[in-house]
Amino acid sequence: LKLPLDESDEIAALESVQFALTEVADGSSYVWHRSHGRLSGVVKPLTSFKDSHGSVCRHVLVVFNGADETKKTETVACRLASGVWQIDG
């Protein structure tokens, strides 16, 4: 995900993804906006499954809307023992 983000934007984006993966049901969307209005996004968990280690993983669609471009990425995130979601790639 290569958008011209400052560090606080990147942190907010990652936090929104972590929140959605933890709180949002498959097929539902979590929409978020930065207060400065230059960045918004949608996080949509699609399906959940367990990997070979028994960890809970989720296919997730992440959309970032920047000032002049939109990035759409489909990825997989798996929950670590700490409760943090590790995103592939």
Overview of the structural elements:
The protein starts with 6 loop residues before the first helix and ends with a strand. By secondary structure, the chain is α+β, with helices and mostly antiparallel strands. The longest helix is centred in the N-terminal third of the chain and has 17 residues, at 7-23. It is built from one helix and five strands. It is elongated, with a radius of gyration of 13 Å. Helices cover 19% and strands 43% of the residues. A hairpin with a 5-residue loop joins strand 2 (40-50) and strand 3. It has a five-stranded antiparallel beta sheet with strand order 1-2-3-4-5, covered by helices on one side.
Features:
single chain; 89 residues; 5-stranded antiparallel beta sheet
Concise account of the structure shown:
This protein has 89 residues and is α+β, with helices and mostly antiparallel strands. It contains one helix and five strands, in the order αβββββ.
Instruction: Tell me the fraction of residues in β-strands, as a range.
Output: 35-45%
Q: How many separate helices? A: 1
- How big is the Rg? 13 Å
Q: What's the story with the biggest beta sheet?
A: 5 strands, antiparallel
Distance between the termini: 9 Å
Q: What is the share of helical residues?
A: 10-25%
Structural class of the helix and strand makeup?
alpha+beta
Topology:
Elements: H1 7-23, E1 30-33, E2 40-50, E3 56-65, E4 70-79, E5 85-87
Antiparallel strand pairs: 1-2, 2-3, 3-4, 4-5
